[in-house]
Queue: 2 jobs
Job 1
Amino acid sequence: MSDSTSDGTSGSRKAGAFDIRNIIGALMGLYGVILVLAGLLGEHEPDKTGGVNANLWTGIGLLVVAVVFFGWARLRPIVVPQDVDEPDDDPTRPGPRRKRPPVT
Amino acid sequence: MTSDTLIDASWLDYLLVAIYFAFVLGIGVMARRSVSDSIDFFLSGRSLPAWVTGLAFISANLGAVEIMGMSANGAELGLPTVHYFWVGAVPAMLFLGVVMMPFYYGSKVRSVPEFMFRRFGTGAHLVNAISFAVAQLLIAGVNLALLAGIVHALLGWPIWIALVVAGAIVLSYITLGGLSAAIYNEVLQFFVIVASLLPLTLIGLHRVGGWDGLTDKVTAAADGAPADAGVAPAAQQLESWPGQALSGFDSPLFSVIGIVFGLGFVLSFGYWTTNFVEVQRAMASNSISAARKTPIIGAFPKMFIPFIVIVPGMISAVLVSEMIELKNGGSPEGGASGEGVAYNDALLLLMRDVLPNGLLGLAIAGLLAAFMAGMAANISAFNTVFSYDLWQRYIRKDHSDDYYLRIGRIATVAATVIAIFTARIAMGYDNVMDYLQTLFGFFNAPLFATFILGMFWKRMTPTAGWVGLVFGTLSAVAVDRVAAAGLIELPGQGVAFLAASTAFVVDIVLSVVVSLVTEPKPAAELKGLVYSETPREDLVDPNEASMPWYQRTLPLAGIALAMVIVLNITF
């Protein structure tokens, strides 16, 4: 996955790694892998779950969700226009100022 | 219990929590540094698709209130709690999308008081700004109390230290830039919460023997409970209507009226249509059509959230030994507050009993995320209103942007410190929902009355604006105090419903009376603020007619309404 790959000709780019769907996919996928491993390798706690390997099944479910989001982002990429207005420091959400290079 | 802490987390759980924080803070830092044009693009405002703002809209509300409060309610009262979703949220969300959103999106206001200022001028603005600021501080206290409860449950620290540490965590979350990427984080949070609560519900149901097992156990528990424990009969816990357990009325008819008018109309319309923490999410969408669809798309997940928060609460009440004892009138030791188990602990205790390490970490990450985001949203809303609506307008005008940003930062720290104290008030309530609904009755119900009247009746005058708000709030406080003195007996959330309804009626009546004897604003100043003075074409998106039916506002709202009616009939 490459972020902000420029295709030059049409004056617009794809959102790439920063597409929120890819971020969701990454987090869900990471959790999925960890839980599948925990389910396979870790101690199984049947007295808590009533006999189901909950970590394993949840992990598999999360991996499926991750694949769906990656697939969606791949099939229908969000196109970012060439000229993007820089976001203001939103007065409704104050915090330290944004560090950005001065506009040239 | 063998250990000092309520929950036994292992390194695996902490790893999952750490990953979540790495993601959230990472997004914040990237947003602040502007590492990518695409982040700028997403955050520059008015660029997000409706499904993202819709999920953020739900997620901004899926905080402490929803998760802990609703599961507490589920444990205590059972299935009637679904009214908070199917009567108390979905219709109001659809109304917000269909009717009110165009005014917000079109007028580009940044806070509720700002809308009041433009519609009614100074008096209503000042009253509303002060009451909004106070409400945010009190609600931030609720979030902080629940956050501290988790820290206490995880690490076993004394509750005072947990409160201070939790406050410090939220402050660093705000300052490290979590907020500037709030929408990203809220969407992530939604998925983490669903990913943890769905398995919790399924495993819990598996443990009690499925839905039939749950109903059998709830029936057995209700029949076996001692009379002085005040447990609602099983039939009332397992059927949503007429919901006497929730409203506190003995008569089924009054109960239905109380729920539909008090909760369904006044409280929920008041909450959803005037709550800028949520409305702001819709303002970030890319068109008026997407803004209107934001709450409507949010309504679909909202319908099904009760199954993953209320059902676990009900399971907890029949599966977890401390909860069984509590519901039988006992007062078991422990609990997140450190002062005995309360209904608020229902979800944490169920997690302790049924989730294996690993899934437990996922659940803790989800809960921490939700309370932090909730409190951060309250604090930043306070901050905005304090710096811009109060300080700038009434105390120090015409200073530099830097000056107000500095004031905002001081306000953030001050609000966090105050929240530590308001959290102590929240901890005094056994069921946090009772407290929250009381607050909404004080602040949101009169606000909604003034809003709706001001939006549809151009004759309403500036004086009526502030008079209605002041006396609406005072009448709700009066009802609450009379009830606290023991003159009205309504268990459940009945007092809150009654206070809210009173506030609404008092506000409307006074506003009408005062309007008739005072001078209205000239009609020219009301364009975009009052329905009859706003051209129709300003309220709809011209492109919407060309979209397929499933992307248009009204058909979507119709489907959501039909689904919620089916759900009401089924349960």
Job 2
Amino acid sequence: MSETHSSLVAHQFDDGVQQKQATTLGMWVFLITEIMFFGGLILAYTVYRIKYPEEFHHASKHLDYVMGTVNTCILLCSSLTMAFAVHAAQEGKRKLTMIFIVVTMVLGAAFLGVKGWEYYTKYTDHLIPGPNYDLNHLWEGAGLLPKTQLFFSLYFAMTGLHAFHMLIGLGLMTWLFVKTKRGRFSKEYFNPVEVCGLYWHFVDIVWIFLFPLLYLVDRSH
Amino acid sequence: MIEHSEPHIVPKKTYYIVFATLMILLFVTVAMAFVPLGPFNIYVAMAIAITKAVLVVLYFMHVRYSNRLIWVAAGAGFVWLVILLAFTLADYSSRGWIKVPGK
């Protein structure tokens, strides 16, 4: 056994550096499966958008792009605070790590709040696909475009899956907060903070793509 | 295979610069959606989104400072996504090019 071995390093690793690299690689492999997961939905979106461009164009105008922009701002801010949480953990600053984790969680919850409000307005506007779906009362040309439900189905599937990932992210943050509070992390060992950060940034990246795809389908006319 | 090095701590200034760039790109992408570019709106929007994603991956996700194995992993994810999209769209977009008798 090498002399760098301590209780923080699991017995299958040579040292902490190798352990950290293995952990990071493991998270990246998971994130690749996530790319393919969301990739399937983005593919479905692309195929139908090419097939029904007019439907997508008009349906997307019924999403509130201001809310979408605000939510993107919130998520980008949360990524910055997450990066700061990892930064603080790297420097072994326990209190600061906890503060940034909480700020990240507050921003994540704010995102979900705005998202929930948007879902509610879609419900009151009868824009949830199903028997009560009705775009005609909002836009008289809707009758000519019978496939607008498709856009909203994809909207709810994509943003719903994303919101579910945010919930998991908030769960991870809670767990990280407790572990940090109990002093489980140090300059030498902060891998969970680092990889939870990777997950959080990944969920942010998914939104970076969902936002223009769903909210910004050519608003010039 | 695995390079042994001390973990790299990214200066906070880098995070602020990346964050500011991301915010500027966000407002550019919203503004560009209102400019009539016809079919090019989606290309502009996606180019900006990819730029933002690359910034997040390189700096917030520390790939720029990671070992080559992480570069390969991150790159592979992107390559497989491109395969998924490109091959399926090649199929959909070329349907009907060749007439099938009896169809």
